[in-house]
Amino acid sequence: MWKRLEKHRSSKSPSGMSSREYLSEEELAWIQEQVEEKKKLITTMRNKPWPMAKKLTELREAQAFVEKYEGALGKGKGQQLYAYRMLMAKKWVKFKRDFDNFKTQCIPWEMKIKDIESHFGSSVASYFIFLRWMYGVNLVLFGLIFGLVIIPEVLMGMPYGSIPRKTVPRAEEEKAMDFSVLWDFEGYIKYSALFYGYYNDQRTIGWLRYRLPMAYFMVGVSVFGYSLMIVIRSMASNTQGSTSDGENDNFTFSFKMFTSWDYLIGNSETADNKYASITTSFKESIVDEQESNKEENIHLTRFLRVLANFLIICCLCGSGYLIYFVVKRSQEFSKMQNISWYERNEVEIVMSLLGMFCPPLFETIAALENYHPRIGLKWQLGRIFALFLGNLYTFLLALMDEVHHKLSNEDTIKNITHWTLFNYYNSSGWNDSVPRPPLHPADVPRGSCWETAVGIEFMRLTVSDMLVSYITILLGDFLRACFVRFMNYCWCWDLEAGFPSYAEFDISGNVLGLIFNQGMIWMGSFYAPGLVGINVLRLLTSMYFQCWAVMSSNVPHARVFKASRSNNFYMGLLLLVLFLSLLPVAYTIMSLPPSFDCGPFSGKNRMYDVIQETVENDFPNFLGKIFAFLANPGLIIPAILLMFLAIYYLNSVSKSLARANAQLRKKIQALRDVEKFHKSVKGRAIVKDSGDTLKGSSKNATQLQLTEEGTTPHSTSPSQTLEKKAQGPGTSSSAGRTVLPTTRNVPVSQPPGVRLNSSQPLPQTHPWRSTSGKSTRRPPPH
Amino acid sequence: MGNKQTVFTDEQLEAYQDNPFRQRIAQVFSEDGDGHMTLDNFLDMFSVMSEMAPRDLKAYYAFKIYDFNNDDYICAWDLEQTVTRLTRGELSAEEVSLVCEKVLDEADGDHDGRLSLEDFQNMILRAPDFLSTFHIRI
Asked: Mind telling me how many Å the CA of A369 is from chain B's nearest CA?
């Protein structure tokens, strides 16, 4: 095709005009078509199953073609602009590609995760990938909070020590720098930018007139908004990747055969494990296949399951009550003096211990139930989820009690503060001529700032959780591995194969722990802006620590079954936890009044009043009217109803689409069945005929051996059988096989012409090509 | 990146010595089918086995890998070979033949006693973890 264009140009060039102007319309259209085709080829090059060398040459050819002729498509002056646009588009594509490569290189910990993947398989590695993703989300949240709330207050707000809320009270001052006090997040840390109480309620700060209270509120809301958006986006991309799971049960053996080997495995121990687990899984499926339902004592099974569930519910209620009791006790302790370290940290210790010991307890009880491992895993996950949820909400309830208690004290403290200041300014014994210095901030009586107290509780819980999990890994995995490895030489039984042996990495426990920690961060970040920063540090250290622990002390799972759709399951759990952690924060924002002397909302009636204030003062008037109009319940309730209707409509649309999908699939299956049926019918009919003639020819063969007559009438039948054989060999190989030997016997008495054909070997490949209406054709000679 | 004839034998791919299909992989991706790969073949292999390869491409090459006798169909003998390699000979002969029968039952759409590319693709594209297991991370 290039030759055509070259000829065209060469025929035109003697006239001295530019060849481009003389390309006729049809040539232009044809070139355009070719360019489009080549472009399409370039984009779909990845999908083609060609070898790499061929792909590269085709790609280069296509790209050269597009480059050469794209410029020719524009006309006149527009052509230069067109060429310029194309150039820019190409540069943009190249830039995007380089940027993508750069982004891939920047992904942290890729080699570590690949190492773990090759040793332990893809399911353990998926936990670390999840951890890495969580780290990214927390990093973004930290950037948001740090940049928009902490930095402005630290740089542009009042410094430490200038106003009461930012100063350590006089009573606590001497102990404020002690490590034990700092570890409990009291002392100087409590009066720093890490907690809610530090922030001033000035409407604008600094020369930029930065509206800090508004920023604080909006950042708090956007933390939840961003988390929600990113979790849903991740779920959506997961569902797009996976196909519909309609007929998965029909392909158990095929899937086991073709998808059970994990090509990522690069370690011989893991490979051994994998071989063993594949063998076990095949044997299990074979046993399932061969055995009929063994309804062995279903009543006993049911009774045991009910018993197990009852025991577990008892455990859950027990743990909930224990937490409530401990939190109440800690409130009493805080009123006492000289409390020991244990009494101070009792709540956190109890919660962490429960989280550590209850899951194995549940697993032991679940051994009564005798479920298939996949179902058992789901039950276990559900129970651990219920445990963590119960613990968290009991903790919150107890915390709410404390908050209400603090709020009820506020009035009395307000009075005390008022009277103290009054007395200070009006006390006798002071010269009236010199203006009195204001009361030192450390001496002003302080309200008990409930928001900071809540923030401190969450902070302490996070830190203690982290410490407990690290200690668990160190003791439960590392020390156990050391013990098994070194004591094995001098122990009665084989420690590695027998009781303690090496630990396996508990994927579900770790993932749930991660999810619930994130829930606590979401709950606490409104009251302690520094919590997200602590969490970032925690995830960072956790990544390195757990990578080391897994490689040094864990062994790959002995029994591997696919929890394959679990990726979206964990995301769904994260979404649920996000909503559950949004609820307490929303409740406190909406219904509790902020403390009167600490935090960015002090002095307001409710925290969300800051929005109204901003709208009134900072926005133009008509916007205020619009917002007031929008906030009218008469408008909001119909909007909510409309959203419900939209959800119902979309739900029914998606259901009908799923139904249509299933019907189409059934139709395809039916068409395939019909095709196969027709083919098999044709084949059977042919075989039947050849079987009849076969019977006839075998009888004749025996007769032929006795007499020499009747060769001519019989000569047609073997050739007919041969032809019919050619038409339908694949349908019933057994019939073909029986036909063959008899025809070999027949040619002994046949005329030479027919004999030539009958001694030819039957065509093995592509028998269909000789069929369909060409019944008189002979099989092609090989 | 010219086309130097750097030959990679399958002994050099040490990290994958435990893969039961290592010889098949080398044979499928090598130019002359005998297991010796040039740089282009090597690139091809990793491109197909990478995360970004499309499903259909992976299914096509998976079919070629599991087709031991290179006749464009996965027949019963190919299936037997696959099972034996996957279980390293731990299953008895009747168990092996039972498994092969079941697979043919499930996946053979046109009932010709062997799996064509179409049958294989229909089946494998429904597998939930095909993409994650047929994958080598670099």
From this structure: 28
The values of phi and psi at residue A423, to 5°, are -65, -35
B50 touches chain A (CB under 8 A): no
Asked if A734 contacts A771 with a C-beta cutoff of 8 angstroms, the reply is: no
pLDDT per residue over A24-44, tens digit each? 788 888 888 888 888 888 888
Among the partner residues A48, A247, A263, nearest to B126 by beta-carbon distance: A247
For residues A452 and A195, is the Cβ–Cβ distance under 8 A?
yes
Conformation bin of residue A292: beta by default, left when phi > 0, alpha when psi is -120 to 50: beta
Residue B128 to chain A, least CA–CA distance (Å): 6
Cα-based angle A737, A742, A744 (whole degrees, multiple of 5):
100
pLDDT tens readout for residues A596-654: 888 888 888 888 888 888 888 878 888 888 888 888 888 899 999 999 999 999 999 99
Q: Closest partner residue to B87 among A248, A252, A282, by Cβ?
A: A282
Nearest CA in chain B to A680: B111
What's chain B's length in residues?
138
A61 vs chain B: nearest CA distance in angstroms?
Answer: 16
- A177: burial class by Cβ within 10 Å (0-12, 13-18, 19+)? exposed
Task: Give the residue on B whose Cα is nearest the Cα of A121.
Answer: B133
B132 and A52 within 8 Å at the Cβ level: the answer is no
CB contact under 8 A, A248 and B61: no
Q: Do A251 and B127 touch (CB under 8 A)?
A: yes
Backbone angles phi, psi at A447, to 5 degrees: -80, 155
A504, β-bridge pairs: A555
Inter-residue contact A469 to A353 (CB < 8 Å):
no
Residue A560 neighbours by CB under 8 Å, 6+ apart:
A121, A123, A273, A274, A277, A281
The alpha carbon of residue A702 and the mean position of all alpha carbons in its chain are separated, in whole angstroms, by: 74
Give buried/exposed letters for B3-29 (b at 16+ CB in 10 A, else e). eeeeebebeebeebebbbbbebbbbbb
CB contact under 8 A, B133 and A730: no
Amino acid at B35: G
pLDDT tens figures, A148-199: 999 998 888 888 878 888 888 888 888 778 888 888 888 888 888 899 988 8
Give the closest-approach CA distance of B26 to chain A in angstroms.
14
Region of A599 on the Ramachandran plot (φ > 0 left; ψ -120 to 50 alpha; else beta): left
- Residue of B63, B32, B29 whose CA lies nearest to A50: B29
Question: Could you tell me if B135 and B51 are in contact, meaning their C-beta atoms sit under 8 angstroms apart?
Answer: yes
Helix A25-43 vs helix A52-70: angle between axes, to the nearest 10 degrees?
Answer: 150
Of B18, B126, B132, the CB nearest to A251: B126
Q: Is B118 on the interface with A (CB under 8 A)?
A: no
The verdict on a CB contact (< 8 Å) between B17 and A268 is: yes
| Partner A contacted by B136 (CB < 8 A) | yes
* First-residue to last-residue Cα distance in chain A: 39
